[in-house]
Every structure is written in C-alpha cells, then in structure tokens.
Amino acid sequence: MAPAQAHGVPVVPDSSIVPEAVRNGIDVEINGEHFVHTGDPQMPLLWYLRDLLQLTGTKYGGARGENGADLVLVDGKPVPAITLPMAKLDGKTVTTVEGLAAHDGTLHPLQQAFIDEDAIGCGYCTPGWLIAGVDLLKRKPQPSDADIDQLPNTCRCGCQTRVRAAIKRAAAGKAGQA
Amino acid sequence: MSANTPNGIRLSRRRFLQILAGTAGALVVGVRVAEAGEPPLPPEWLGNHFQQLGAYVRIDAEGNVLIGARDPDTGTGVATALPMIIADELDADWNRVSVVQLGLGVDAGNNGQPQWSYGRQRGGTGDSIPAAWADLRQAGALARWLLTQAAARRLGIAADRLRCEASTVIAPDGRRVTYGSLVDDASKLDLPRQAPAPKPPERYTLIGKPVGDVDAHAIVTGQAKYAIDHHEAEALVAVLLHCPWPDGSLARIDTAPALAVKGVVKVMHLKPEPGQPPGHTVIAPAVAVLAENTWAALQGRDQLKLEWKPGAATSSGALEQQASALLDGDAAPTTRVRDDGDVDKAGKHAARRLEASYYQPWLAHACAEPMNCLARIDKDSARLVVPSQAPQQAWAVVQRLTGLAPERIEIRVPRVGGGYGRRLDHDYVAEAVMLAKAVQKPVRLLWTREQDFANDFYRSASVHKISAIIDGKRNLLAWNQRLASASALSGRGAPANRLWSSEVLPDQLPAGLVPNYRSDWYALESALPRGPHRATPHLSNAFAVESFVDEIAHLMREDPLKTRLRLLGEPRAIALKNGGVLDTGRLRNVLQLVADRIEWKNWLRSVNGLGLACWYMDGAYVAHAIETSLQGDKLGIERVVCAVDVGRVINPLGLEGQVAGATLDALSTALNLAITYKDGQVQQRDWKDYPLASMAALPNSVEVIVVPDDAHPPTGASFLAMPTAAPALANAVFRVSAVRVRRLPLMKEFQRLS
After folding, report:
1. Boundaries of each [2Fe-2S]-binding domain copy (chain A) (predicted)?
2. CA A146/CA A129 separation, integer angstroms
3. CA-to-CA distance for B559 and A102, rounded, in angstroms?
4. What's the topology of domain A26-99?
5. How does pLDDT run across B399-457, given as a tens digit for each residue?
6. Minimal CA–CA distance to B737: which of B627, B609, B616, B636?
7. Chain A residues in contact with B225 (beta carbon < 8 A)
8. Which residues of chain B lie closer than 8 angstroms to A151, CB-CB?
C-alpha cells in the first residue's frame, strides 16, 4: 500500500479480502514468540518490552542499567535491556524473566531456589538477579563464591546472601527440596 | 478488592465496609452491625460467591481464604506477616490462604472528612507489626468466632466445646464442618457484644513458624506488578527534568525541539506551590515532557533547551566546616536535648578525658523502583496507582489538588520497590495529579534515576563531637555529646523547639547509664531537601556513640566487651523519657550472644580484627560482631554476626531476611555511599556515583541469632539491624589496622588515613 500512497492515489481493492502487507521491521524472538518492531529502531529494548509488549518483569534501573534490574538474555548472554536499541536485535532471541519458566509453568531451578531461600527483598531487582544467575549457572554449573561475586547486580534491600544461597542450592540440584 | 468491579458496585461495597467499620475503625469486623440500623446487604454486592468476614477476611464456599494486607510492603515482609497474624487467629489453613494487598480504604466521614476503613495503612516505618499485634489478631478472632457460632447452631453443640483447625470446626465427637460451608450462615449472625478474646499463645500454629514471602512466585516469574508496571489506556508517559538547584527556578525554555520529537504531546512547567510543606507538592521547579511512550518522552527531555536560574552556591564541604566551627566554638546549642547531673562539674574531677568527632555524609534513598505514579483524574473521581509507604498521605495530596470527595479517590498500592522513608513523601503524586489534570488524560509519571539521585529528600550530614570523663576505676562519669545537623523536620510544621527530634534521641545509649549526661543539638541550614530516612536518627548516632565507646575502651586499655558490659551494668529496667523501658539485661544478652558466636575471647590475639556494637530502639535490641581482614591495603569483611531480640517473632524466616538485609544495606552504605553537593547542586547522578556494594564487597553470609522471647510483644524489625553494623565494622577495622575511621564513607577515609 505504501507505493499507492506515495502517488496519492487510493487503491481500491478488487476483493474484500486484502492480504496484510509484509511489514518491514525488526524481527525479534522474545520468550519464544516472534515480534516485528516497526517503530523507532533506536528505541531501547527495555521500553519496547515494558511499554509496547507490557512485559514488565524487566525493570528500569537507570540510564546505563548498572544495577542489573533490566538484564535480559540476548542469544543467551545477559545484557542490560536499556543499552540495546531495537536496531541491534534483528534476528536475535531474547529471554526475559517471564520466559525463564517452562511453558507448563514449571519454574527454572533457580526461580524455585529463590523461593526456597526466600531470596527476595522488595523484589524489584529480583528478575535481574535471576537473569544473571541463570547465565552464571549455564556457564558454570558449579559456581564458586568467587564466580558468584562477579554478578553485576546490586540491591539495597540486602538480598545478596540469600541470592548466593539460592544459586548454590540450584547448582546442587536441591531446588524445591526441603 | 477487584479494581475491575463496575463503579456502582464498588461504591456499594465501600458503603458496606463503612457500615462494618462503624466508629471503631479497623477493629470492627463482621457482616452486619445491628446497631447501625442498616439491613444486611444483598450478597451480590459482596462479589458473586465470596462472603466477607470483615475488611480483612473473605472466605468462599470452597474454603479458600482471602486475607487483605493493609500496610504497604516495601520489602519488609508485612504483606506476609500481617496476614499470618490474622490467619493464625482465624485458624485458617495457610495453604489455602491468598493474600491481597489492600488499596487505601477510604470512605466518606463526617463533614467531608475521610474515614479510614482499614485503620492505619503505613509501611516501612518499623511499626506495622506492633500495630497489627494490637488489632489484627482481633479481626481474625472475630471471624473465627462467627464461624464457630454458625457451626454450634448447625451441630447443636455449645460453641465453647468446639475447636478450630485448618479452616475446619471440629466437634468433640469428631464431626467436622469446613469454614467454606459455614460462611453463609456465619454472615447472617449478629456480632458479639464484646470482642472475642484472641487465642492463648500456646495455641499458635502459624505465628513463630517460617513462612516464605507471599509474593515470591509472582516476583520470580516477573508477574508481580509494581506501580511502575501499571498501564492505563490512553495514558501519556511523563518524564521530568527537575531544577538541579532545589532553590533555583526556570529562567528560559524553548520547547519547540522537544515538541518536534515524534510522540511528544506536551511540555509543561511545574512549580512547588507556595505554602505547601515538603512532600506535599513538587520538590523543585521542573519541566515535564509528556509523550505517547517512555522512549519518546526521554528523547523529548533530551531535546529540551532550557536554562535554570541557579540557587545559592552552597556546598556540603562548607556545611561541614560550619558544623565543626559551631561544635568547636562556645555558642549555645539550638536545643539542649538532655542534661542529667552536672557534666561541667564532673569535668573538674577528671581522671581521664577523651574527645572525638565523627562525620557522616548526606545520604540518598536510592530506592530500586524510582519515583513514579499512575494517575487518572476524571471529573468526579480519581484513580491512582502509587508506590507509597503512607497512602493516606497520598490521598491528602490528591484530595487537595482535585477537591474530590474522600470516597471518590481510589488509591492502589501494589508491592513497592523499596521505601526507606522516601515514600512517606508524595511530591511525585502531586506532580502526576497536576499533569493528569492539565492534559485530561491518565498520566504515567516516571522519574529517571538521575532525577531520583539529584532531587531527593536526603538524610542530612552530621558532625558529632563527644567528650567523656572517666574516673580512676574506669567508670564513665560524664558524657557530653554535641551534634550538628540540618533537621529533617525543617519546614514540615514542627515547632522550632522540636526540630532536634528527627536528629537525636533523648534516650539513646548511654543516656540513663552515665550519671552526668548531656546531649546538645545545633541546627544547620541547608537548601537541600531533607526527609525521613531509614533508621534515622539511630543510624548516625549509633555510629558516633558505639565508635566512641570503643575509643574509651582503647584509652583504658580494656576489652571493649568488658567496657560495654560495665556500662550497661546489672540487668535492670531503666525508664525512658518516651515512656518505654531500656532492659539492660536484654541488651547485654544480644551483645554476649554475638561475642560468643564470633569467639570474642580471641579478640586480642586474632590476626583479623573483631569489632562489636550494640543498640536498642522501640523495645527491640540488636548487636553486631564483625571480623575484618587486612591483606596489604585491602580490607575484607570476613564474618558478620547479628543478634536481635524483638520479643515474639511472627515470621522467623522474614525476620532473618530483614536482619541480614539491613546489615548488608548498612555495610554497603558505610563502605562507599555519600551524597555531596557543590555550587548548590547534588553531584551524584547514577549508580556509578552512588555505588551500592557489589556482591564481592559484601560478606558471603550474615549469621543471624534471634533471641527466643515470647514474654514480650512483637516489635518492628525492618531496620533494627541498621545502626550497629557500621560501628562494629569501624571497630573491627581499628583492631586489624590501628586506623580509627571517624568519617564515613569508610573506604575512602580508610585509604586516606592508611
């Protein structure tokens, strides 16, 4: 339809069934679903998730995502969503906190371990810790304390000791156990 | 409780709650109050299949119990602990309890005044648990009474022969009636003349048991909705640029470049309203960019071409010099807070004298969830979602700005991403209401992190100068404490002779333990807004006092544990000025517990440094013991032990989390955090400027010891463990390095001195 509009001549369809035009946009997979972003390619992923998709588990932390509240996995690697313009996401796969559990609702072992250890303060930054922790466990299934020390997240509630315990619990395969 | 209920029914339900609440506020629960002369309400007004047993409890026919949490949960665990109190009293099966965070309960009272249908609603102020203990048990007890009465009639057995367990009434002959099957009958009963007595403590089944956070599943799956996560159709996003000088103003603005950004709808100038106290109106002159989405609003903000007229070119450094000059001079204090015995006379017999000054910086609140508000203001109603610690205060701001009748203002308070006192103020609510009124559309207000750091109600810096006089037998004869700070109460309606009360406590240690004790407060003036902050004024005073006690021990060449125990003296109750009691036995106990756990007997021999501190607040007692290491010039926190005595414990799992969490927050704050200002502007803009401690900088665990104490009623504990962590750390650092840190943040000062 775009060329017709360019000539200023409305096209009268000869059928009442009009196939939807192929939309040019940024093709991104988020939590297993395909999305095509046709808006401003410079829009950071964070606002795309929160404003457009209303996937609000990924939180705003600050202009550079330094506290880790907006971490998401892009092709499996943790990145602050506010630092990623949509333009860089064409063909990429994004996992947010909403995508960590299985489709049947079975929690990721680290999610379960967070519940087991009650590793939650106010809970606002928890999704970011989970993303960072899931990435760590994938890279190092048996992380040392020094490995856990490398997590970029911060938390004013002071949930760090329980997050550490939750990561160790998940690593030990004891999520969901007493 | 459903926000989606059609308006008419919602109002009817409110009317229903008002009848319920009667004149006794939150204490009254029940389905029908005969005295009110109102007929019972049609069940459909209560929701299709719910029977409501008071403002806090609903039970459906299947026996599912819905319990309302009235106080906002800012991460303190009250959304779990408060419903636990009700559920235990109700003998509800916790596995079938769902908790719903109650919005503000407000109804039309007399003369257009609001009537608070859920009673108090305030969180993060350390008093949710004690207040709930006083009244929520009765809410549960009354619901249980109604169900038991209904069962008695059905079974033909006297109510006092029935017992309740796991949402079931059980008869002596073994017959069982579930709550779900009784709610219909129970809802038709008249209320008792007297409030039913709460359970005897030995019958608690839930209170005192570890219970996980009720929101945990929603949080770990990203489904928990904070205020910042709420949307409303047609809402515009508002992003603000506040004047970097709290006392500055907008000199010039060109809005055209901002308005040219695609999606930007409007640019507005907001100003603090004259005569309104801080926290009730806009915090500083601001320009708001309203747009169709956050990204457009942020881009619009970046395109603003404006100039601010600067405020006074003050600095935090100059304020500190002013404070030191005041304390070093002989000017009379603004207020003599306490004066026991005769400090001047005691000085004449001095065997030994010690004096030291402690400096503590300005602090920000640094809430994880920045200030935000969703406001929809219609002609005859308002609906807001607010991250508030005090929704009744938020209501007052909305009511003043809209003029709406009390019950036409709906305020929802989802779980809050940190409070620490910041959300007792509602300047951001005023901003959202002003904007929503102006654009006649719902507004989603978002403060960026930069705004959050640059325009806060900060905790004032303070300088403590303490001197002590010790006799030949190591007894502390006199304690003279002089404190200079900018009161958090300035401009907030407190009389001049009460401005000290946000800065120092007349009963704080070692008052009452030293025969000659004086506490003077000197007022500082600062243009920086101040407000309530976590554990103030305990935090700053405990650092000065508990560091100084260690310095006294060092002067006397004594084990600081011994010095502290001698100062506390024999276990006894000392009456406090505020009507409470200091139980020195309970304080000694927590101190001894942490000392034993960290193997204090090694304090002199240990390669690492051990440090202690103890404190008390509002009937609760806390002590920390910390072990630090020094390798080269690198300080490490090796071990942290904290003991608390909070009286009866509601949720030990929650309590342990609060104690460990506050310990880590206090360490993080003491290590590296400070707000500074220069030329009148706050210099911190992002996390890199205000670096909360990384995982690596914090201890791997906090060993929490909870004193079993069912003899005393429960106290609040969300910030109990804040005050003693920093002085215990500084005392441990001194042991390991011989460097006495009297200035926070600690790391910077340690590096300067070593």
Report:
1. 96-168
2. 16
3. 57
4. Ubiquitin-like (UB roll) (3.10.20)
5. 999 999 999 999 999 999 999 999 999 999 999 999 999 999 999 999 999 999 999 99
6. B609
7. 56
8. 695
- Predicted confidence (pLDDT) at residue B703 exceeds the cutoff of 80: yes
CATH of A109-171, one of 1.10.150.120, 3.40.50.150, 1.10.150.20, 1.10.10.60: 1.10.150.120
Which of A111, A157, A162 to mutate against chain B (most B CBs within 10 Å)?
A157
Determine whether the interchain pair A57/B369 forms a contact, defined as Cβ–Cβ distance below 8 Å.
Answer: no
Radius of gyration of chain A, Cα coordinates, nearest whole angstrom: 20
CATH class, domain B332-363+458-753, is alpha beta
| Partner-chain contact A63 B369, CB within 8 Å | no
Which of B74, B80, B220 best probes binding to A when mutated, by most A CB atoms within 10 angstroms?
Answer: B220
Report the interhelical angle of B128-155 vs B78-90 (nearest 10°): 30
Contacts of B663 in chain A (CB under 8 A): 158
The fold of B227-311+371-446 is: Aldehyde Oxidoreductase; domain 4 (3.30.365)
ipTM of the complex: 0.93
Q: Which CATH number fits domain B16-219: 1.10.10.410, 3.30.365.10, 3.30.40.10, 3.40.50.720?
A: 3.30.365.10
DSSP B500-550: GGGT--TT-TTTTTSSEEEEEEEE---SS-B---TTTTHHHHHHHHHHHHH
Residue of B73, B214, B221, B667 to mutate, interface with A, max A Cβ within 10 Å: B221
Q: Give me the residue spans of the domains in chain B.
A: 16-219, 227-311+371-446, 332-363+458-753
Backbone angles phi, psi at B438, to 5 degrees: -70, -40
Q: How many CB pairs under 8 A join A and B?
A: 183
